[in-house]
């Protein structure tokens, strides 16, 4: 997917979950952070960032913080992007892991019980529930989810496991919004419950997949699948 025109800036500090102070053209200002994760590996003082100017004059922040440059690698930090990235991937790629459904329709934000899951893929050979997760943390070539405890993530994995138990297909897709990961693992040290639930869900039939992204100043797209080590 194409990115909007971005302006360079410098990270100063994270003020709260959804706001950071940045430096643009020598002036300190505020940027919206579209990610509730800690991102402590990325958000360090003086780090180059890329920003999109706010389009609404009613905004309290002047920019959206879109990309962070880390050791020469561009990292997308927008946790809203995995859904459109995954949908674009399904529409453009051949040989993706959901071809067994036959030709399918993509339904977004579908209720299943009391939970709203990201996708239901309704195909001629059946349906599959899919939840996507944003990943930004990479250490020594391994992408990790999550960098903070996630009750929402645990609930979604439990919902997918229940779907499989009831005879449906289900998958959780980790979208690593950077190119430099060789494998994926749940971050057991941060959220051992999530890691255990994910492993149990995979053993019970939930399809667990992870993909890296190509990231540039103008475009981000899902690139390649990497192995999941649970």
Kindly name the structural category. Answer: alpha+beta
**Radius of gyration, CA atoms, in whole angstroms:** 18 Å
Query: Strand tally, please?
Result: 15
| H-E string | EEEEEEHEEEEEHEEHEE
- Name the overall outline: globular
Describe what you observe in this structure.
This protein has 230 residues and is α+β, with helices and mostly antiparallel strands. The chain is built from three helices and 15 strands. It is 17% helix and 45% strand.
Summarize the topology.
Layout: E1 7-16, E2 19-24, E3 27-32, E4 48-53, E5 63-70, E6 73-76, H1 82-92, E7 104-112, E8 115-123, E9 126-135, E10 137-139, E11 142-145, H2 151-165, E12 169-176, E13 183-186, H3 192-203, E14 207-215, E15 220-226
Parallel strand pairs: 3-5, 9-12, 11-13, 12-14
Antiparallel strand pairs: 1-2, 1-4, 2-3, 4-5, 5-6, 7-8, 8-9, 10-11, 14-15
Helix pairs in contact: 2-3
Which features characterize this protein?
globular; 3 helices; 230 residues; alpha+beta; 5-stranded mixed beta barrel; single chain
Compose a concise summary of this entry:
With 230 residues, the protein is α+β, with helices and mostly antiparallel strands. It is 17% helix and 45% strand. It contains 3 helices and 15 strands.
